[in-house]
Design brief:
It is a single chain. With 512 residues, the chain is of the alpha/beta class. The protein has a single domain, classed as Rossmann fold (3-Layer(aba) Sandwich). The protein contains 18 helices and 14 strands. The strands form three sheets. It has a ten-stranded mixed sheet with strand order 4-5-6-9-7-10-11-12-13-14, sandwiched between helices. β10, α8 and β11 form a beta-alpha-beta unit. It starts with 9 loop residues before the first strand and ends with a strand.
């Protein structure tokens, strides 16, 4: 099947802005709370799973929302075996309600519980009148039973490690990292570590759907959340309701193809940033675009042998520089923060780029991590890519380096090596990513942004074709994902679809 590289996490860009900015500058109703209620009778329940589809839920207040935990089997092929818990948050509709909109921010590894609050601030008033907003942390993620692989210090070392090995010894160390990481998942998490694939997570969402009394699944998935939604639509096409897939992932790509797609995507975003920066008198890269990119390349390359001081024990390595730059390219609103970071870095102060890296990985000032995003991302990606025939070999990666470097002198080589990230993963999955095909489902809306760095526009076009029941709506512009970009055309089309079921015309283009 397919495998994606594990270098760059794909999250809804706008949801990442708040974390970046802070780092750079420094129809469920109230009567459910605390009660046990039997779940509605589930139609078409898979054999052996009746107890999960009809379990009683205990609801509690969590702020102005309602929260509960849902029990599902660790292994759906062994429903009588061990179980895990899914954290579920429901923000009640403002009006009459009647439907539940599940939301997911991507990753894999992004927490949906907090994302539900964010989406409540973004969705149109008519949507919020009609829908409860539902956040479910997928298995292995966040407040659901999480996968745990490394200590905080080991995660620090992982993020700071060499993304572009230069010699055989560094290549050997790079490959050993995957083995150490995977063994850590098994040691610290047990059976969960081999059962957090996208396919299994999609099956969980059908259980939660039934327990919330919804005959169909209404879904807003961003970035990797599009793959999770597309996988659900493949497994349960008849229960797809109104589904929006924003910033689409193409699950058919091999590791190398996916890595090259992100290489071209992030280079597009970097080119757009540089073109904007050189127009500003304060641009630290100068006033000529070609010279500006050369200066940035030289700066990133120099961090291999000469990490920058940051004012703390950790220095700014090449790996930390890589993530610190990349995270600001998810949305043009964070370009000024990249300018701030580079201005400081060119003066010998790597602290702002370090904080940007920390925002990317959800590292807090005390050295702990607020989410298990970094661990879940690697573990889920590698379980989804369990087909040995699709694994990149060392020779294939080395042969691809010139092509990647030409496509992006800043990001190319590191992303090329990322294609090797799961080849040595020691945990084998029995549930790799399925070939998506939603034949038989209701129309699905796929959104693509023309200069999306993390999920290139070409992927949205491909996913719409692969699903077979999808329409493609394109946003011309910069940044990752479309709905929260401020584009009124996109927002109106999506809101009308969610509220009234009005399917946009396939091929619709929304201009900047």
């Amino acid at each position: 099947m397919t495998r994606r590289n594990t270098i760059l996490v794909s999250l809804l860009g706008a949801a990442l802005i708040a974390a970046i900015s802070v780092a750079a500058i420094t129809s469920m109703k109230d009567d459910k709370a605390g009660s046990d209620k039997p779940a509605p009778a589930a139609e078409g329940v898979p054999s052996g799973l009746e107890e999960f589809y009809t379990q009683k839920l205990s609801w509690d207040d969590c702020g102005e929302s309602q929260c509960t935990r849902v029990e599902v089997p660790v292994d759906y092929e062994k429903p009588d075996g061990d179980t895990l818990k899914l954290e579920v948050k429901v923000i009640p509709a403002k009006g009459d309600g009647g439907r539940s909109l599940f939301v997911n921010p991507g990753g894999p590894g992004g927490e949906a519980i907090g994302f539900a609050d964010y989406m409540e601030s973004q969705l149109g008033e008519d949507v919020l009148d009609r829908y409860d907003v539902v956040g479910v942390d997928p298995r292995g993620v966040g407040k659901s039973t999480p996968v745990d692989c490394l200590s905080d210090r080991e995660l620090d070392e992982y993020a700071a490690s060499e993304p572009d090995p230069d010699n055989p010894a560094e290549v050997e160390a790079y490959r050993a990292t995957a083995v150490t990481f995977g063994n850590g998942c098994e040691k610290k998490s047990g059976a969960i570590a081999s059962h957090i694939s996208t396919q299994e997570a999609a099956r969980d969402f059908d259980v939660v759907r039934a327990l919330l009394g919804s005959k169909t699944l209404d879904w807003f998935g961003a970035s990797y959340g599009t793959e999770l939604g597309a996988t659900y639509a493949t497994l349960f096409p008849k229960t797809v309701g109104r589904m929006v897939l924003d910033g689409a992932v193409d699950p058919t790509l091999t590791a190398e193809e996916s890595a090259f797609g992100q290489t071209t995507g992030f280079q597009r975003a970097l080119d757009a940033y540089i073109d904007d920066c050189v127009k500003q008198k304060t641009c630290p890269l100068g006033r000529d675009a070609d010279a500006a990119e050369d200066r940035l390349i030289e700066f990133v390359d120099a961090r291999d042998a000469n990490p920058l001081d940051t004012g703390e024990e950790r220095k700014l390595t090449q790996g930390l520089t890589f993530y610190g730059i990349a995270v600001t390219l998810y949305d043009k609103e964070t370009w000024p923060i990249l300018t701030q970071a580079l201005t400081a870095a060119f003066k010998g102060d790597g602290s702002v780029l370090l904080r940007l890296n920390d925002a990317y990985f959800r590292r807090q000032p005390d050295g702990s991590y607020s989410e298990n995003l970094g661990e879940a991302n690697v573990a889920i990606n590698c379980l989804d890519s369990a087909d040995d025939d699709e694994e990149s070999t060392l020779q294939e990666v080395q042969d691809s380096l010139p092509r990647f470097a030409k496509a992006s002198p800043v990001f190319g080589r590191a992303l090329a090596w990322g294609a090797l990230g799961c080849t040595d993963w020691p945990i084998k999955s029995t549930h790799p990513q399925v070939d998506v095909d939603a034949t038989g489902s209701k129309p699905i809306v796929v959104l693509g942004t023309t200069r999306d760095p993390a999920t290139p526009y070409e992927w949205a076009k491909a996913l719409a074709d692969e699903l077979g029941t999808a329409v493609l709506v394109s946003r011309q512009g910069d940044g990752h994902t479309a709905y929260t970009s401020g584009n009124k055309c996109i927002k109106n089309l999506v809101d009308d679809y969610l509220v009234d079921g009005k399917v946009p015309k396939d091929g619709t283009i929304c201009k900047e």
